[in-house]
Specification:
Strand order of the largest sheet: 3-2-1-4-5-6-11
Structural class: alpha/beta
Shape: globular
Strand content: 15-25%
Largest sheet: 7 strands, parallel
CATH topology of the largest domain: Rossmann fold
Oligomer: single chain
Length: about 525
């Protein structure tokens, strides 16, 4: 635990990709940390949660924002509305103005902002122009501010890395826009974190922007070829054509990769610019490590190792989808507005709670949903066409769930290890849906004989919500009934393997691949 008199660092966007990785780095450096988020309860699954001060942040409310910054020494501004729709620039502008004023009034000593690297003599994309505008607002706040400008961040789970990874892995040959010949200067996420922590102790007189980048400058085409070589893939055939607009490119990216269109579009728009560092003055504040900055190939190796080990700590999917419901589970139909549809099923399982939990904690992702896979794929495709996440987000961790993890078109709302996991739907729906998977009964963790309880709940909104429920209800027997049977079979297979003193997950995977 940090010392009580240690400087207090406030991290906005603590539920996001960079913020979620920055918090443990600050704790390791000896800072006290206040984690600011719209819903700080979403942080409960993080290993560092007991060490931080979680605070609710509403950047539309100046008074509450001012209170959230009380006593803060260093404010990390990592808020952005990328992927929230066409008005994200206006949203970011308003949030930055509120935060700048609140920080000044609260007596914050330093603001640190992570923005985007950009050229000086071009009309910028909406994304980069917005990042630049936020930087200017914070620098004019009256609080000493350091703005770090980065291009493509290479790290497991980052949106830019996932776009490049899936395009390269899934397409041995591709036609691409002309921007693949533009030069970029990627940076490893661990170097970004090192800079973010290091500048917190900069002299009070320092208030300016700094370009940050890795040791190599290359084209986006070169980056994809280097990824292919590092991942052990054959060299890719990449043909640039002049007819692919950023809009068409973002639609293609959304189709091929898990990154949704609203997030892919501004990122792709920004790739039309060459983004290369114009200076390396950051080294005067945070000297380069003795071994030098992390190179591109090494950054890709580290990211792939994290993915292979199932150790991706944060992901672009950590952010909720635009318009996704945040309603808590209704405990009373009258509280929910009068109607709460239920589909409840129970199956007795010849397995221990330990074996059944091992299965329940592995739902979704590449293992599927224990039932009619075609129905899930069709539902996922329909959701993508409606602007939802579909099944493309997968899982951050293949074997374990924590609160706030994205699992396909669900988000984990509750995890009680060994007892229950509850998922809240983030698919496009005329209402709010939950899926709860629970273990009932059982005399001991290792004693055979337990009940698998499954609840699907739906709180409709308007007439369309009622129509939707009754339209899909006939399929519940196949989908949820199949889920009951296959979960039971998988748990019993795990129990047999455990009894035989094996530790392999093969029985689970075998059951899932066999279908229903």
């Amino acid at each position: 635990m940090p010392r009580p008199d240690a400087p207090l660092a406030a991290v906005t966007g603590a539920t996001g990709y960079v913020g979620g990785r920055l918090v443990p780095e600050l704790l390791a450096a000896g800072y006290r940390v206040r984690a600011l988020a719209r819903r700080p309860d979403r942080l409960r699954g993080r290993s560092w949660y007991p060490q931080v001060d979680p605070v609710d942040l509403d950047v539309t409310d100046l008074r509450r924002t001012r209170e959230a910054l009380d006593g803060v020494d260093v404010l990390y501004y990592l808020i952005h509305s990328l992927g929230s729709g066409r008005s994200f620039a206006a949203t970011d502008r308003s949030a930055a103005l509120t935060m700048a004023r609140a920080a000044r009034e609260a007596g914050v000593r330093r603001i640190v902002y992570l923005g985007g690297l950009h050229p000086d003599d071009e009309e910028l994309s909406v994304h980069l122009a917005s990042r630049t505008e936020v930087e200017e607002i914070l620098l004019a706040s009256g609080v000493p501010t350091i703005a770090l400008r980065a291009a493509v961040i290479l790290g497991s789970g980052s949106a830019s890395f996932e776009m490049m990874r899936y395009l390269t892995e899934r397409l041995p040959a591709m036609t691409v826009p002309r921007w693949v010949a533009n030069r970029i200067q990627p940076i490893a996420v661990r170097d970004v974190l090192r800079y973010l922590v290091g500048v917190a102790s900069a002299p009070a007189s320092t208030s300016r922007g700094y370009d940050i980048g890795g040791p190599e400058v290359l084209t986006y085409r070169d980056l994809m070829q280097l990824y292919a070589a590092t991942a052990g893939l054959p060299r890719r055939l990449i043909v640039a054509v002049p007819v692919l607009s950023p809009r068409l490119s973002s639609l293609w990216v959304s189709l091929v990769t898990p990154v949704p269109g609203p997030l892919a579009r501004p990122l792709v728009d920004s790739l039309v610019h060459e983004v290369v560092c114009k200076e390396h003055d950051i080294a005067t504040l945070v000297p380069d490590p003795p071994a030098g900055l992390v190179g591109v190939a090494r950054a890709i190796e580290l990211a792939l190792a994290r993915i292979d080990d199932g150790a991706v700590s944060t992901s672009w999917a950590s952010a909720s989808m635009r318009g996704a419901p945040s309603d808590p589970l209704p405990s009373d139909p009258r509280w929910a507005g009068g109607t709460l549809y239920r589909d409840e099923r129970r199956t007795r399982v010849a397995a221990s709670p330990a074996a059944l939990w091992r299965v329940l904690e592995r739902v979704g992702g590449d293992r599927g949903w224990f039932s009619w896979s075609l129905a899930w794929r069709v539902r996922g495709l329909a959701d993508r066409l409606a602007g939802g996440p579909g099944l493309r987000r997968g899982r951050r961790d293949r074997d374990h769930l924590v609160v706030d993890d994205a699992v396909d078109f669900w988000r984990v709302e509750l995890v009680e290890p060994g007892r229950v996991v509850r998922l809240r739907a983030e698919m496009r729906l005329p209402g709010v849906a939950w899926l709860e998977l629970a273990i009932e009964g059982g005399q001991g963790w290792d004693q055979v004989g337990v009940t698998f309880a499954q609840r699907a709940l739906f709180a409709p909104r308007g007439l369309l919500g009622h129509v939707y429920w009754w339209a899909v209800a006939p399929f519940h027997g196949v989908v949820f009934g199949g889920m009951q049977r296959n979960v039971a079979r998988a748990a019993e297979a795990v129990e047999r393997a455990r009894t035989d003193r094996t530790s392999s997950d093969a029985p689970v995977d075998d059951v899932l691949s066999s279908g229903d």
